[in-house]
Amino acid sequence: MSLAFVSSPSFRPFSTARPPVKFPTSGKLRPPRPPAAAVRASSTRGESDGFTQKSGYLFELSTSDANALVDYNIKRIAAIYRRKPLIVVRRLVQLAVAFGRWFGARFVDEFTEKSDEMFEVRARELRRILQELGPAYVKIAQAVSSRSDLIPPSYLDQLSLLQDRIAPFSTDVALKTIEKELGLPIDLVFSEISPEPIAAASLGQVYQARLRSSGQLVAVKVQRPGVQAAISLDILILRYVAGIIKILGKFNSDLQAVIDEWASSLFREMDYVNEAKNGIKFRELYGDIKDVVVPEMYQEYTTRKVIVMEWIEGQKLVEVKDLYLVEVGVYCSFRQLLECGFYHADPHPGNLLRTDDGKLAYLDFGMMGEFRKELQLGFIEACLHLVNRDYDALSEDFVTLGFLPPTADREAVTNALTGVFKDAIAKGIRNISFGDLSGNLGFTMYKFKFQIPSYFSLVIRSLAVLEGIAISFDPNYKVLGSTYPWIARKVLTDSSPELKSTLISVLYKDGVFRIDRLESLLSESLRAETKKALAKQPVEAAGSKVVVKQLLSFTLTEKVTFSPLLFYRSTSFFVAFICTHIFCFDEFTHIFCNIWQGSFIREILLQEVAKVGFCIPSTCGFVL
């Protein structure tokens, strides 16, 4: 859920029922920017809290039952609702009627040939239905709301409203919740607060306030009443439906485990104390990345249902069409997934902002994921083997990552993967999209009992959202093509034994040194810069790639017949390389020096150069 937008309403006293607070004459907030204010007002004006009205009966839990739903435990949830069969039946009827009526209307539109005419109407109706059904269904909609390449524009516009423009619940209820959670009168904590929420999403809504103690402008997020009870029952239902689908559809993947993984992260997201800790950790790990902003958390004002953090002004990244910040996000995702292993698992467009000074701000740290070391290594190896068309090794990677059972027929899998990926890889890594890789994979996954590991749904979503944002204003953007250069550089510079072994397996095939693969890794590593940096010296970068190719070709080919001319030309390239790149200190020099400082790649290069050196005296009849 997004915590900051481009505008700020004026502050108000805390409640009409309580004496007005005397605000200081200085320190008033800036007036709202009309365009954003108008958009927000138009999106929610006249709408009531449909979730509370239509699904409020789900909130009726005893204190002991409510306390039992603090953490995700499917057995505990099942035990609670086994004692409440009428609520379960009522929810099932509500779901059946809501979706049945909508699909029925779509069928009538098709039958009467009014589909185009009623398209936007049905999109609005679907958004309203999802909003009334509550957080679980809103979260599912948020997951697809960034994919302009998959969702029709009318539906995309409506589903995008579910990111942060859901009709809010009562402000009086929100303010009472703040006081109850903090154990203090609200006017002792804040000197000012916005009269209405700035943003409202599936789990809570956000107010802008000013801390009385420091005068700091902050965002105050308050949890929506009843969300844990509603989500618990809906997960129980979805899990039951997933079990039926798995049986009837003969799915290899454990759909219930995927739902369990998602549900666990969703329950963690509802604990704002946990979110504050995540935000602090995220800021420590990635706050130093150039042009990345992570808000400060105020733990002393944070409880399970209320969180206070630094206010950040900005616009949604998807609205400003800043491809450079998408590249920044790609690099940050690379760091999250393949270096630190702690990643933002809910980066929908409402949680990514372009700040007023042109930086990328991350918000909402409730749903985070852990990517273990062995999975990081497996993912890197799979990317390298895919790019280099090493499908034998790729089938092994799929076992390591949990996509294939260890008993799978490797040879048959290799042949199948070759048929699936060869056309996509022929385009080059820079032109591969998620759609290219998944387009023909369905039959192969079914035939060889591919599984979708529970962790993978969150990982792929974190990357797919970035690609979806970029595609909305650059249809040719490919997030995999932007991520691979960072993988190439990591493989060339990392000193870990695991990646050394990976590099050896990539560069040597049947004991033969593959110059073309080293050239590819070096060339791709040159692209491991954001577009803003690359735009500075495009000519020099291109020239650097030529030098890499020529240098490697003349010095590291084993099948060589010595001649003075060849020796002269090879030496000339070394001299040209030194003069052009060492003394000019251009972008390539910086990158090459970083790679050269990695002792392992230096050892490989010197070893291969030595092989050429030993050929020279024997060819000329010299004795050393």
UniProtKB/TrEMBL annotation:
Residues 17-49 are annotated as: Disordered. GO terms for molecular function: ATP binding; protein kinase activity. Pfam families: ABC1 (PF03109). SUPFAM superfamilies: Protein kinase-like (PK-like). InterPro entries: ABC1_dom, Kinase-like_dom_sf, Prot_kinase_dom, UbiB_kinase. Residues 192-526 form the Protein kinase domain. Belongs to the protein kinase superfamily. ADCK protein kinase family. This is Protein kinase domain-containing protein. The lineage of its organism: Eukaryota, Viridiplantae, Streptophyta, Embryophyta, Tracheophyta.
